[in-house]
Amino acid sequence: MSLAALEDDRGASPLSEAARRYRIPISIAVSIVGLLVARPTEYSIMLGSGIAFMGLVYRALAAGQIRKNEQLAVGGPYALSRNPLYFGSFVIAIGFGIACGSVVVLVIAVALFLAMYASVIDREEAELRALFGASFDQYAAAVPRILPREFSLRRAFDGFSMSIYWKNREYNALLGYCGAVGLLVLLMRLHGASSASDAIWL
């Protein structure tokens, strides 16, 4: 079955297609709403941005491995999880939910990720199966779907290529991270919350 045939397959669920097509604008809209209700503190920003940074690094290591539609990525983070980019994004979502200093934002961020990306991953793995056939089936049988089977920096760095990282424009995630942290610091100053004792959990 070719990738073109898969794209023409009308059996894909409307939810899967909508999630795949609109996940970026929906995520941006939810992020804006989250910032409007956020009440960040120094403590929440330090803790949350630190967690988000770990997700950012994990995404970067994955982005430095993947050659989209050319080669099945099985090294580095892909030897530990079939979807390290999405796992990294999930960690980032948790981190920024915490950084916002709001339980509401944290719950919405996690729920949105789980609701949208489950169907997106289904669709993308179907595309990989169509492209790589038995090779993908063997890989999928040996490697967990989302959660890494171990956390090993040495293995995660194996095969990393900075040129592939730049080709995949993963630096945009770093720019977004810096911008989000900057906005949270600005919000903290605007709300006058400067210590952990000032935390407001909505």
What would your notes on this structure say?
With 202 residues, the protein is mostly helical. Helix content is 68%, strand content 0%. It has one domain: Four Helix Bundle (Hemerythrin (Met), subunit A) (Up-down Bundle), CATH 1.20.120. It starts with a helix and ends in an 11-residue tail after the last helix. It has helices at 3-7, 14-37, 42-63, 84-99, 103-132, 134-142, 153-157, 162-167, 171-191. The chain has nine helices and no strands.
Task: Give a nutshell description of this structure.
With 202 residues, this protein is mainly α. Helices cover 68% and strands 0% of the residues. The chain has one domain (22-194): Four Helix Bundle (Hemerythrin (Met), subunit A) (Up-down Bundle), CATH 1.20.120.
What best-fitting shape do the alpha-carbon axes yield? globular
Highest CATH level, the class: Mainly Alpha
> How many structural domains are formed by the residues?
1
- What is the string of SSEs from the N terminus onward? HHHHHHHHH
Question: End-to-end span in angstroms?
Answer: 50 Å
The parts where pLDDT drops under 50 for at least 5 residues are 1-11, 193-202
CATH topology: Four Helix Bundle (Hemerythrin (Met), subunit A)
Please provide the count of β strands: 0
- Structural class by sheet pairing and helices: mainly alpha
Which percent range fits the helix content?
55-70%
CA radius of gyration is 18 Å
Quick one: biggest sheet?
Answer: none
Residue share in β-strands? under 5%
Residue-averaged pLDDT, rounded?
80
Q: In CATH terms, what is the architecture?
A: Up-down Bundle
- Number of H/I helices: 9
